Amino acid sequence: MIIYGSERVEDLSLRCDVVVVGSGAGGAAAARVLAAAGAKVVILEEGGYHTSFDFKQREREMLPMLYRDRATQRTRDRLVNVLQGRCVGGSTVVNMADCARVPRAVLEHWQRDFAVEIDTADFEAASERAEAALGVAEIAADQLNANNRKLLAGAERLGWRRSRFHHNRTECTGCGFCLMGCAFDAKRSALVTLVPAALADGATLVSNARVERVVVRGGRAVGVQGVLTEEHGDRPAARVRLEVAADVVLLACGAVHTPLLLQASEIASASGQIGRNLSLQPQLPVLAVFSERMVSFRGIPQSAYCDEHLVFDPRVGMTGFAIEGIAGGPVQTAGLVGASGRDHKRWMARFAHTGSCLVLVPDQPAGSVAADETGRTRIDYALQPDVEQRIRDGARAAARLYLAAGAEVVVPALRPLTEIRNEADLARLDDVAVNPDATTLLSAHPQGTCRMGEDARRAVVDSRGRFHGLEGLWIADASVFPTSASTHTMIPIMAFADLAARSIAQARAARTI
Amino acid sequence: MIPEIDRRTFLRGATGAGALLVFGGALPLGACALTQASDPPPDLAVLSPRAWATLACFADHAIPRGGAFEAGASDVGVAGLVDGWLVGADSRLVTDLRRGLALLEWGPLLLGFAARPLTALPPESAGAYLASLTTSRLGFVRQLHAALSELCMLAFYSTRSAWRAIGYDGPIVLGLAESVELERR
After folding, report:
1. Which of residues 83-142 of B touch A (CB under 8 A)?
2. Residue ranges per structural domain of chain B
3. C-alpha closest to that of A232 among A376, A56, A2, A50
4. What CA–CA distances, in Å, run from B69 to A310, A338, A342, B160?
5. Least CA distance to B135: which residue of chain A?
6. Which alpha helices (H) appear in B32-122, and where do they start and end?
7. Phi first, then psi: what are they for A287, rounded to 5°?
8. Neighbours of A231 (CB within 10 A)
9. Does residue B27 surpass a pLDDT of 70?
10. What residues in A contact B155, CB-CB < 8 Å?
11. What is the per-residue pLDDT for A59?
12. What is the largest CA-CA distance in chain B?
C-alpha cells in the first residue's frame, strides 16, 4: 500500500513490526528483506513518490524534485557540494548506477581496526543478493560513449590500469539523463526494484513523511513521530501529524540525516561518535575539449574508470585516487568552467566537443554533521593536506590521460581557469589551491557518522546495525561505515542493510525483540 | 549555494554605511546601465524589483551578449527565470540570496568603489566593480560572486536559446510545461 503523504488530510497513526525511515539503498534493501520474512513493515520517505513519468530530463525541474535542497547542499565552508536524493528510492534514483563492492582489503581494515565482526563470506553473499536484485552486469564495450572510450584509450596509451563499470541498467536507451531520474526505467533503482518488492510482500510506503524524532520509552525505541508535508518545496510545509508505533525502528536516512535525527531525538551514544567521522570521498571534475564532436551528454555517462593510482594502505585503508568518466547536462557543465563572461561562453560553445571525468579521492574521516540553532544542517569538513595533494595529483593524472587520448586542452574545475595543452603545462597544477575560492568539489558518497563496531565505547552500532545501548533501534545506511568504503556506495549499503535486516528477522523469529 | 550572510557578516561588509543599507531600499531604482534587460516582470514571485535589477545586471556581466555565440542573459531573462526557480526554495536560501543581492547592489558604496549603487553605474564601472569581487579580500564576497554565477548559469543553460548555441539537442521527453500545453490543446 502506498500512502501519499501530500494528499493526506487527517493525522496518520500506524502500528507495525518495523518502521524503516528512508527508502534509499539502505531502507529499501532492509524493507524488502523484512517484508519477505513476514514482518509488517512501514517505510517512511521524506521526499515525494515520483515515477519515470515525472522524470522530464530538465535540470531546472528535476533538481528541486529529486535532490535534497535542490542539489545545493554544501559543507559549511562551501567547498564540497554534497549530493543526496530526496524521493522514494533516494539516491539510487539519481545516481550513476555504478555497482561496486567494498574492496576486500577495506573490509579487512574495518574488521581488524574497528572491531567489525562481519564475516567476509557473509558480506560477499549479501553483495551478490543486492546485485541480483538490481540485475547488475558489466557495461558492454559497445555501450561506451565517446568520452568513456577516450578515457580508456588514454589510459591504455599510458599503460594505466583501467576497466568498465558494472551497472544496474537493462535495455538502456543511452539518453544520458541518469542524474535526472531514468525516464525509461532502464536504471533498476530501488524505486523500481526493492520498493515494489517490499510493497508486494505487504509493506506500506508513506511518501512526504518527515520524521522529526524517534520515540523512546522504557529504555527502548518504540516508534517515530513527524509530519506529512506538502508536495513541493525544499522544506515543504507540514499538513498533518504522523505517528508510527513499532517494535523496531530502523534508520536509513543517510550519513547526513541519520545522525541529525538521533540528535533531534536526544539519543546519545556512549561512544560520543554520533555525527562524527564523516567521510565525503570528494571528487574533482576535469573537462577536456577535443577537435571532434564528442556528444558526451548522450550514452551512459559513467561507464569506464582508471584505477592505476588507487592503492591500499593497511594503516588507513584505500588511498590514492581513481579517474572516472562522467557527463552532465549544460547546467552542470557550465558550473564547472572556472571562467566568467565571454571566456565562459567560449568554453560552453565547445560543449558538444567536451569530455569530462571525476577524480575520486578516498578520504579519511574528517568531518561532522549537526544542526544549528535554526535547524539548518551543518556539514563541517576539513580537507586534509594529503587529500588536497591527491586531488592535485589526480588532476594532473587526468590531464595527462586526456592529452594522451588526443585532447586539445584540459581544464580541471578550478578558478581561475587553468588550461593544460601539453605535458609542460602540467606543472601549472603543482601548486593550485583546493579551497572554496578555487573550486567546488562534489560528494555523492557521504559516509561514516554512526560508525559500527563491537566496542560500544568506540562505535554507535554493532556489526549488524544494532544501536549500542538502546533496544529496538537499528541503523542501515552509509553512516555505519567506519571509514570510506572507497568506492561507489550503493551495493555496499544494500549489502549491509541486507545483513542488518536478516538479523532483525532472526531476532523476531527467536522472539528476542 | 549562496554563502550564508548573517547579520554580523552583513554589517561587517557594510561598516560605516548601516544607515544607507537601512534606508537604501527607499531610494528610487536606477536602470542598470550594464544590463540590456527592460523593466522587471510584473509577476515576480520571490525577488523585489531592485533585487531583480541587481541580479539582471550581474547576469549580463556573467553571460554577456556576443562572443562565441550571440545570446546572452538578457535575451532569455535570466533574472526572471531565477525568480521562478526560487519558488518553493528553502526560505533561508532565499534570505541569503536577498541579502547577497543587497550587498551586491550597495557594494560600490560600501566597498568604496563608487558613489552609486551597482544598478546606477555606467557599464564600464559596473563591469569593473563586478570583476573586482572575484579578488575581494572578503571571502564571502568572492563566494557570493561564484554562487550568483552558478545561479545565472543554471537559468541560462536551461533555455533552448542556450542549447541551440552550444550544440545541445536537449531532452528527449516532453517537459512539464510542454506536457501541460499539450494537454490544454
Report:
1. 85, 88-93, 131, 134, 139, 142
2. 7-184
3. A50
4. 41, 18, 9, 13
5. A437
6. 49-62, 73-76, 78-85, 91-110
7. -105, 150
8. 18
9. no
10. 60
11. 86
12. 58
Give me the pLDDT at residue B185, please: 67
Comparison of pLDDT for A471 and B10, the residue scoring more: A471
In terms of Cα–Cα distance, which of B118, B52, B42 is closest to B86?
Answer: B52
**Chain A residue with minimum CA distance to B150:** A335
The answer to whether residues B134 and B142 touch, using CB atoms and an 8 Å cutoff, is yes
- Residue A346 C-alpha cell reads as 567560449
Taking alpha carbons only, the member of A20, A6, A19, A27 closest to residue A85 is A27
Q: What is the DSSP letter of A303?
A: -
What residue of B is the nearest CA neighbor of A231?
A: B88
Residues A324-343: pLDDT tens digits? 999 988 998 998 888 889 99
Pairs of CB atoms within 8 A across A/B: 123
* β-pair partners for A475: A251
What integer pLDDT is reported at residue B20 of this predicted model? 35
B60-70 average pLDDT score: 96
- Tell if the CB–CB gap between A60 and B134 is shorter than 8 Å: no
Spatial neighbors of A485 by CB under 8 A, at least 6 apart, are A102, A106, A445, A447, A478, A492
Whole-model pTM: value is 0.91
| pLDDT 10s digits, B95-154 | 999 999 999 999 999 888 888 999 999 989 999 999 999 888 888 888 899 899 999 999
Torsion angles phi and psi, residue A210, rounded to 5:
-95, 110
What residues of A are in contact with residue B168 (Cβ under 8 Å)? 297, 329-330, 351-352
* Residue A121 CB neighbour total at 10 angstroms: 8
Question: What residues of chain A score a pLDDT lower than 50?
Answer: none
Mean pLDDT (whole number) for B55-81: 96
Centre a 10 Å sphere on the Cβ of residue A141 and count the other Cβ atoms it contains: 11
Distance, in Å, from the CA atom of B89 to the CA atom of B124, rounded to the nearest integer, reads 34
Chain B residues whose CB is inside 8 A of the A349 CB are 68-69, 165-166
B31 in A contact zone (CB under 8 Å): no
Among B82, B149, B183, the residue to mutate for chain A (most A Cβ within 10 A): B149
**CA-based end-to-end distance of chain A:** 25
Closest-approach residue (CA) in chain B for A440:
B146
Enumerate the residues of chain A whose CB falls inside 8 A of the CB of residue B68.
Answer: 342, 345-346, 348-349
Q: What is the largest CA-CA distance in chain A?
A: 69
Predicted complex ipTM: 0.89
Mutate to test the interface with A, among B94, B129, B158, B182 (most CBs of A within 10 A): B158
Cβ-Cβ contacts under 8 Å for A300 (sequence gap 6 or more): A97, A139, A143, A144, A145, A148, A167, A169, A172, A174, A176, A178
Lookup: cell for A330: 549544460
Measured between CA atoms, the residue of chain A closest to residue B67 is A342
Asked if B148 and B141 touch (Cβ cutoff 8 Å), the reply is no
Q: Higher-confidence residue: A120 or B16? A: A120
Contact between A330 and B174 using a beta-carbon 8 Å cutoff: no
